[in-house]
Specification:
- The protein is an alpha/beta fold.
- The protein has seven helices and 16 strands.
- The strands form five sheets. The chain has an eight-stranded mixed sheet, with helices on both faces. Strands 1-2 form a two-stranded antiparallel ribbon. A two-stranded antiparallel ribbon has the order 7-16.
- Helix 1 (32-44) links the parallel strand 3 (21-27) and strand 4.
- The N and C termini lie far apart (51 Å).
C-alpha cells in the first residue's frame, strides 16, 4: 500500500510495511509422505511477505536435491548430519531455523513442521494478535490416544517433566477452544510464530540425557524469562503424524549421543 498525501504534500497515511516472516522447518526424508501436501499449502499461503527455509537433516543428499530442484525459491541447507542421536540432530535443525531467521533479519519466524498443515491465512491471523509467541492448535496421535498439543496449566514443580500432559481434546474443558487467543503454559512448536526478540533470547535446545524434546525446553525457557506463550484456538491445523506410533518405542529410548 502506497503513502496517501494531503493536498499540501503531508502524509495522511504512511505506507504499511508487512513484517518479514520466515517459514522454517526441519525436514528428514522420513517425512516424504506428507511433503507434497505441506509444500503445496506453504506455496498457497496468502501472506505477502514470507520466505521459506528448510533445515534438511537426512543422511543422504537425495531428498535435499529433490527439494532444491522442485522448489528453487526455498532455501534448503544440510544440517546436523554428523550428530548421531536423532533427538540431537532434530534439535540442531530446529535451531538452524532460528539462527537463519536472526542472521537474515526476519521480524518473525513461523516454525512450521512439515507434517503440520495450517490454514492459508495462518500468518495474518497469528500476527494480528501482536504476541511475542503464539501458535495454532493441532492434535498428536490418533483415535483414543489423540490429544491436543497444548497444556493450559503450569505444573506445580515447574520441571521439564511437564510435557504433553493435557487430557484428550474431547475431554478438555469445553470452553477453552472457543476461538479466542488464550495464554498457555506449553504449546507444540509444529505451528508457532516467534518474534525476533524471543529468537534472540531463547535457542532451541535439548539435554541428550533426557527424553524431552525441544518444545518442552522452549516452553520452560520462556517461563523462566517471563515470556508468555499464547494459543489461537480459532486456528486448527491438520497433523500428518500417522507414522509416529510405529516409532514411539525408538523415540522414548534413553538418548545417548
Amino acid at each position: 500500500m502506497a503513502d496517501i498525501y494531503n493536498i499540501d504534500g503531508t502524509v495522511i497515511e504512511k505506507e504499511y510495511k508487512f513484517p518479514k516472516v520466515l517459514i522454517a522447518a526441519p525436514q528428514h526424508e522420513s517425512k516424504k509422505y506428507c511433503w507434497e501436501a505441506w509444500s503445496q499449502r506453504v506455496d498457497a499461503l496468502t501472506y505477502p511477505n514470507y520466505e521459506v527455509y528448510i533445515a534438511e537433516n537426512s543422511e543422504s543428499d537425495d531428498f535435499r536435491n529433490q527439494i532444491k530442484k522442485d522448489h528453487p525459491t526455498y532455501k534448503c541447507e544440510k544440517i546436523g548430519v554428523n550428530i548421531t542421536s536423532v533427538l540431537g540432530r532434530t534439535t540442531e535443525a530446529h535451531d538452524a531455523c532460528r539462527r537463519y531467521a536472526l542472521k537474515n533479519h526476519f521480524d518473525y519466524m513461523l516454525h512450521l513442521e512439515t507434517d503440520v498443515i495450517p490454514p492459508i491465512d495462518v500468518i495474518e491471523r497469528l500476527l494480528y494478535s501482536k504476541k511475542q509467541v503464539i501458535g495454532a492448535v493441532y492434535d498428536i496421535f490418533h483415535g483414543k490416544m489423540r490429544k491436543s498439543m497444548v497444556q493450559t496449566n503450569e505444573p506445580l514443580d515447574r520441571s521439564y517433566r511437564a510435557y504433553r500432559t493435557v487430557p484428550f481434546i474431547e475431554h478438555e474443558e469445553p470452553l477453552f477452544f472457543d476461538g479466542t487467543v488464550k495464554k498457555v503454559y506449553h504449546l507444540g512448536i509444529g505451528c508457532i510464530l516467534i518474534s525476533n526478540y524471543v529468537m534472540n533470547k531463547i535457542p532451541f535446545r535439548v539435554d541428550l540425557n533426557n527424553i524431552y524434546h525441544a518444545d518442552t525446553w522452549f516452553a520452560n525457557d520462556c517461563f523462566q524469562r517471563d515470556i508468555p506463550i499464547f494459543a489461537d484456538t480459532s486456528i486448527m491445523c491438520k497433523h500428518y503424524n500417522s507414522t509416529w506410533l510405529d516409532a514411539v518405542d525408538e523415540i522414548l529410548k534413553p538418548i545417548i549421543n
